[in-house]
Amino acid sequence: MGSTSLTAQLFFLNSTMNIGNNMFSFYLENQLFSISTYNCLDPATFDLKLLKRYKTYYNPYTFSMYLTFTLEADPLMEPFPIVCTSLVYMCRVAQLKPINNQFTLTISKFPKTDYTSNPPISVDIQQTFNMSKSFTLEFDSLFPIEGQDNGTIISSLTHYPPENATIKMDQLYQNYQSLLFIETPRLSSVLAYVIGQNFIQQSWKLVKGNGTYSTYMASSTLAIDHTNFFSIYSVSKTTSTLSNPQNISIVSPSDIPGSLSTTRGVDSLGMLFSLQIHFGELNNGYLEENTFDLSYTFPYGWQLLYPDFSYSWSTSFYTSKFSQGPWISNYINNGIYDKSGVLTLDRNYNNSNVVVHMINYIPINSFTFILQVNITSYYKIIMMEYSGLVFKSYNLVSGSLYNGIFEIVVKSTFDKPFPLKAYLMVYDETSPSAVNAIYFSSTYLNSLLKTFPVLPSDIYPNIILDDFYSINFTHQNIDITGNFINVLNLQFTNILANFTPILVIGDSELIDRDYQNQFLTFQGIFNSETNMHEIPFGIPKQFNSGELPYTIVTPYASFNNTILATVVGRSSILTISKSKGDMLLPIVTSILAYPTTNVVLSGSGNMLIGWNITIEDFPNGFRDANISVVSSFDLEPRHFIIEKKNRISGDENLGVYQLSFEVKEICRTQKFFISNIELYDQGSVRLNQNIIWRLATIVGGKDDNQLTINLICPNQVFTSPPTLVYFSISPSVIDVGVRSRVVEINMTTKDGDGNLGLSDRHNPYVYLSSQPDTVRIATERKSYNTTFSNYTARFQMPYGIGIENFFISVYGILDNQLQINGYSPQDMMTNGSTFYIERTFTLNADPTLTSYTSFPVTGGSVFVSGNSLGTDETGEPIIGEIDYGQDLFQSININQRYGAGVLITLPTFIIGDTHIQSAKFRVRLFSDIYSNTIELVPMSNYGPLEPTTSPNPTSTPNPTSTPNPTATPNKDCNSRNCIHGNCVNSTCVCTSKDWVGPYCSSKVIPIVPPLPEPTPTTYIEIDDTHISISIVEINELSPIGVVLKSYNMTSANWKFENLSNDNGIAYHYSTELKIGSNSTVVNTTLLFIKDGTTIEFAGQNITLLPYSIKFTASLSAYPFSAMDNLMDIVFEASISTDSDSCSSRVSGHNNNGQWIKLNIDDHSLYGTFINTVLLDNRSTIVTLHDTDDASSDKQTYQYSSIHMAIRTPSFGESLQIDPDFSVLVDVDNDGTSKLCQPKKKLSNGAIAGIVVGAIVLLSLAIGGAIFIKRKQKSKKEMKRIQMKMKALNNN
């Protein structure tokens, strides 16, 4: 009941009705209320009438025909129950979205049936409830009819696992899979891969195809404890058997008997329940049968029970003291469904009284809106769910969890469109296992008769198949072996000028959509002259030849190319005539245990064990793999990355890679096996790792026995498990609404009574759990001896997490014998340790920005999402600030402000002939409280590319004691830090040539010219301070910044030539980058400039200070894999000392770009990187960014370093860099805070420092498909360098 008012009451009622007339009535306080009479219709009486039939289409890559049709059915059920039947063909029918009366019919050929001709196809469509209600679809066959002999040539057929294989499952309980690969240069018949005697046909995927040959893959999941039968056929006029039936048996491991027990404790904090499942031995499998009837999960862990050496799988969960039971835990014990762990609790608190006062949609664009919910409840709101999207306490923007407004950003995506019929489910603290209230769109919300609204159709059009009028491409047949840009032209039956659909290219199953493959997503413009939507797009070279798979995405539904072809015809088909053609993951072809499958470790010290893994990938080439190894007694996986450096033979197309790890002399007899493999090739598209099981090519085959390594430890000693003897956590009260939400943990564990020592590989995990969330915190071992180990952790809690208290669990305490222990919150309480900390939440304390919507280089409306931004009614005034990085720093008005984000209008990113690559944005409250800064990157020229966003507060990396570089904005210039200069446009401009540096606090001093090194690196030694500067990496990236190819320049084979003469000192280096069969020459030169001068570069005057060190660099042609890819040239600068010192690391902006300053005591390394380069002989602004991870350790008391990257677009002809480094002395302290060795004090005298200034300009020469020979290029480079040296000397 939604209201207790006697004058206005709203009831939510459910009723079961019978077919026919029903009187809908109910009793309230013994009084009968009759609502109305309703007629419940019998679905068996519904007639099937064909309203419309679309075109037929045959897809040669799925070996199926398709037909879309529309029914006239009244009333219409969802889903509508119909089936299809055909005498000589296999068929299936599927309902289309977004409406319920459109269906797609798929037709396949039936194996062992002769098709000597191509007669018309007849399919009956029948209603499930009444098979007499039907109609017949007849249409011409489009299947190929060539004979097997002259139609299809099978070059190879490979089946995994092999015939008659018997596979015994290991403890991981993985889903086993069969794989089939067929390679053919010509295919004109139909392939069929069927399961069992009922001919259940599996779908095929074209995984390789370059126009010359094609490889098809089919897969299926193998049934456990059954024999699986498979057959492969080629069906044309007649059926040809391509392989004998495969018989594969999967045998599950024996059940590990267990018993279930539960306990509960009640206190004023709420309810703590504990669950234990006891086993005779450790169970490494996932206990998926163990379920709680809860809408969230809690941590679990293992405990060794001493002295009987059995194991307990333990967990605890917390609920509010107002919660209503029951909670149920189920467990499968020896095949029997065990409910002995039923937990019930009867409470006498008031019932829930949830009232939703208002639901509001705030449009952002056609694929994004803000959902606002105004809600009150007698108890705290735990969470809400809007049509599958969950939002929690951190989405509160005003009020409280009892009476507040929640906001969440809702996006329509490729696989999760907006729902036509939305729902809202509400959970409060009385019911963690059931919904307290549920609402549906277009229904009443409350007694004031407020309704659940629907999205406005003018902004969010509900597009159906009939709305597509025409689709065509500027080029219908293309070769993508080179960079190629095409345009999709789309016209709807009605003009939709305010809406532009999204184009997503690629097979949705082969491509990893969870990964940031946004460069496969494109959105264009509406052309008012042609009334067509034009979407420019590019295609990665690794896409297969043949018909391009693509999808048109609209707010409520997505339409793939197959469905669209049945509506608008073959004009919607784009054919790739030639490509690189590799959409298949690398394949593991062999695994051999190293050194053997049985290893005895007895008194001979530690030993290396592992596997030699053979990996094949052609033509892309193998890049790297993530591999996890577990053991029968070790639940903490060993994670490995194998890449080129691990290759012991072969090449990137077929190579053997060694994975090895050390086992210690004090050990436990156990079995090691690989639990997971993720394989990646060098293609630009991230492929779906779940499309195939990576070990399917090994299990059941000749190397099956090599998958397990048995480690035998004869000298095992079993004792009591290790224990937790000390635990502390601070603060005792954590505010999860402020910017600093750090908890600090210190704990000590003690070895058991056998002096085995605590494992140095296993650091315990600390879990903080609050209904309905849990965070896991990894600890770090700081000190240890033979008996004790001390651990610490610092962790930034996610913004707004939890409801009330955080309960503490500690799991994963192990000794060297892998004896394990853990502590639930109840164990912690029994142990006398702190078992919870209190939670508070200060609303709108510190504004935080998290992500933004895509935008073009011309600027426009952008929504920046975040938290704690307040509202115009509840928050203080707010303004935006944007920094383009080239002395363009301006304020931006906030058009609309919401708790979930701000709507701004960005100006153009095109200034003159320069395209700005990115800009930094933040918001500022009038009380001078700043948000974090995020980088805004405009979409690609060929479509909107989702940028890499700032980390979400829910996944903030752990803070460390090492501070990150502090970005100093231009506006920080003031009289206190600009000591010998004036603040002009927020930049410190020196008033005398004697003063230099970012704060005009340094002076130039002479240095001795550095000696040449084997690589393009310069070293400077000042007393006991060491300074180095070098180019370390060149990376090719996708448009969103994902590294596609990386070249380590520090390990490159450099050729050195000393070009020093009377004009100056010059060291020249050259090397080659290998990119497949192509090579790119890299030339780098270091020049020492004794006298200062001014040069003109890229339209800017650059001042070179005396005693400067200049880098120059050039590259010959580099074959970018896509025109809109990027390149990073990464420099490393570092300063260090051997003595106890103070260090600092700070960066900021000046008129020309970005500067960095690294200090060790009174020495400093100073560098300026200009943001303008010559790109194809044009002045181009690029982005500069620090590539160091936020959690990386780049500063200690004795060391400070930074990696600075210059990010450029792809280029066609040339690009040149000329960095400059100068030695300065810091005379005045600029006030930068430093990280110091404890108790060490700085002198009060003047601070003298060496500062090296770097002005980084980048030049890479590209020759398209023509590659210049290195020798010729080197001669040209020598001449250019000598001319520059002479010119500098003359100046």
Automatic annotation (TrEMBL):
Ranges where the DUF7034 domain occurs: 722-842
Q: Where is this region: Disordered?
A: 941-969
Bilayer-crossing residues are 1246-1268
Keywords, ordered alphabetically: Membrane, Transmembrane, Transmembrane helix
A Pfam family: ComC_SSD
Which CDD domains does the UniProt record give? TM_EGFR-like
Residue ranges annotated for the ComC supersandwich domain, each copy included: 1017-1224
**Record flagged with keyword Transmembrane helix:** yes
Which residues belong to any copy of the DUF7035 domain? Answer: 581-687
Known InterPro entries for this protein?
Answer: ComC_SSD, DUF7034, DUF7035
Record's protein name: EGF-like domain-containing protein
Q: What is the species listed in this Swiss-Prot or TrEMBL entry?
A: Heterostelium pallidum (strain ATCC 26659 / Pp 5 / PN500)
